[in-house]
Structure prediction request, 227 residues.
Amino acid sequence: LAKTTQPISMDSYEGQEVNITCSHNNIATNDYITWYQQFPSQGPRFIIQGYKTKVTNEVASLFIPADRKSSTLSLPRVSLSDTAVYYCLVGDPFSGGYNKLIFGAGTRLAVHP
Amino acid sequence: NAGVMQNPRHLVRRRGQEARLRCSPMKGHSHVYWYRQLPEEGLKFMVYLQKENIIDESGMPKERFSAEFPKEGPSILRIQQVVRGDSAAYFCASSPPGQAYEQYFGPGTRLTVT
Prediction:
């Protein structure tokens, strides 16, 4: 599975837009990019997934350039409750009929008042 | 629709004892994954099961660890003769058939070995 690189930590303030970039230079043709969010003492929560261009849902947007070697998770107008660890994962969700998620260290986002 | 349930939430065991962690997947989900998370690290895949079948246990230590997902009842992760290095948070996730990319995680069981 493609290895991902993302910043260890980020700081932001309430109301700002936060963009977390993930590098995945060795992404394969069948790989998708998926982002999970984890609050302290909780299990991760699926945020968004995409293959190319832009994907948007009620929580976030995911921007993927044409070469797919990186992706950016965009959180609009963050609040204190968005303080969490954000994981970028890359893999083929349809290979073998199941998806063995490979988590890196993630990005610790701290939102300040 | 209740989410993924795990119990106990916290478990303390002395070295050499056995730990049993339970996971009830979401209703309608037949796929269960177990992950382990050490402090300040990301989750590590351990095992993937379907009802009565272990499909992929490539992330599980060969000794002392076992998992099952019986036809009836929760999935069980069993750790025999626990050691201090087993102290971690153990998360269970489930997914419905055909949607393996979106896994729903439980709250985890925090195992402390003293």
